[in-house]
Description:
Blueprint: H1 6-19, E1 26-30, H2 36-44, E2 49-54, H3 57-69, E3 76-80, E4 93-96, H4 101-110, H5 112-115, E5 119-124, H6 128-137, E6 140-150, E7 153-162, H7 170-175, H8 184-205, H9 211-230, E8 236-237, H10 238-248, E9 261-264, E10 270-271, E11 273-277, H11 282-291, E12 295-298, H12 315-326, E13 329-332, H13 335-339, H14 344-351, E14 355-358, E15 364-367, H15 374-385, E16 390-392, E17 401-405, H16 413-418, E18 423-426, H17 431-439, E19 443-446, H18 449-453, H19 455-470, E20 476-479
Parallel strand pairs: 1-2, 1-4, 2-3, 4-5, 11-12, 11-20, 12-13, 17-18, 18-19
Antiparallel strand pairs: 5-7, 6-7, 8-10, 9-13, 14-15, 15-17, 16-19
Helix pairs in contact: 1-2, 4-6, 8-9, 10-19
Amino acid sequence: MLRLDERLGAIADLVLEAVSGREAPCAADVGCDHGFLTAGLLERCPSLTMIASDVSAPSLQKARELLASLGLASRAALRVADGLAAINGPVDAIVIAGMGAQTILKIVAEGRARIGNAALIVQANVDLPMLRTGLAAQGLVVEREIYTRAAGRHYVTMLARAGEADMPDERAALLGMAAGGMRGEGQRSYFVWQRGVRVREMERVAPLQTERAKERIRLSSRELTWISEALGMKNCTVSDVERLVGGIAPYELAEEWDNVGLLVGHADAQVTRALVALDLSMDVIAEARTLGAQLIVTHHPIMFSARKRLTDADREGRLMLALAEAGIAHIAAHTNLDSAPGGVNDTLMAAMGAANVRGEGFVRAGDLPEGTTLGALAQRARTRLKAEVRLYGAPDTAVHVLGCCSGAGGGEVALARALGADCFITGEIRHHEALDAVDAGVCVLEAGHFETENPVCEVLRTALQNAADALQYNLTVFCSKGNPFGR
């Protein structure tokens, strides 16, 4: 039997549900392409006949050849046609899939009379609120929805029938909660996907600071609230987030001289949005305000040394005043995140393609594929870290084990060498440290403090979001896309 992927399988399930109990069921596959769905349905329902249509004659020929090879050609009428023009009589189910919502609605509007009492099964992966609203406007009631994921893409398959359709408001159009809607884990997965879509959109436009960007953020912000309510999430506080950060990067791993945890803000203040960034800057604070975030989580902390006054006379003072004025709290995870499993240095090793990673504290080492050279590693760092890289050693030098200490880690070469490293990547290295490394047979890549540490921000965002989700906290975590040096 022909194997259908999750996307086509969801369509097939709704078609078979729609034709169940019919003596001589007939279904139409509009835009059938190569005919996989048509063939799969005919195999699964021996009493079914199909109308398969496509605007492309070559695609239809491939469908014809597939059906013939499976001995199914006699049960399918293949027609080159646009939209619903191929349907010339009553059918029990009509499938329109593999198209955008706008195209689907156009086909439905132009062929509305041909649908009759058939179950209309549509599938799109974008503009779902438009599709739900458009179907209702044409007198079609959505009775079922199935969320699926196939080949890394997300799909919602809807079954609609003619009836007294209530126009969904914006909330219902987004959530798909009309009639039967989605159910169970599928519904939850759909909500999580939709939340992710809006987070990425808000992150993309937030740095633009244009009126259009602000309006898009406002709309997405409202939709995030609806999604959080639909997921039944619980309130969380700054203190709750501080505990979550400590679970990811235990505070006891921090150096004695460090300054980590909650540095600014009320511990019991409610948080619905947080922004992760490498550094606290005025641009990051502005981005947090645009996103409606009440908390910023950074790698690098402020207040390393005692302060006797808080004024706008220096950069740190201006930052602290801006946080207070905006009502935004600040948590830092610094050397604890450097040392934590999965933290800054493990993230750097993963980005550089090292395997069998070992080490503790700030230093890691991992094996490289046979034939790797210093020059090839430098190019990888340029591409993956978006870094300007300085090489200490000949580009054609063969390297087998990569050591690392992100940021200002040039003083840790000896520890990496003890783990077997013959190449070392860091953010900053002093001249004499580089000389000592090369003399000891360890070539060096100096790739920038920001560049070697910034990849952890997305990792921290994901870990923090997952931890919040596991506890059902109403917390959406963003990751700053900015660079304090304008690069």
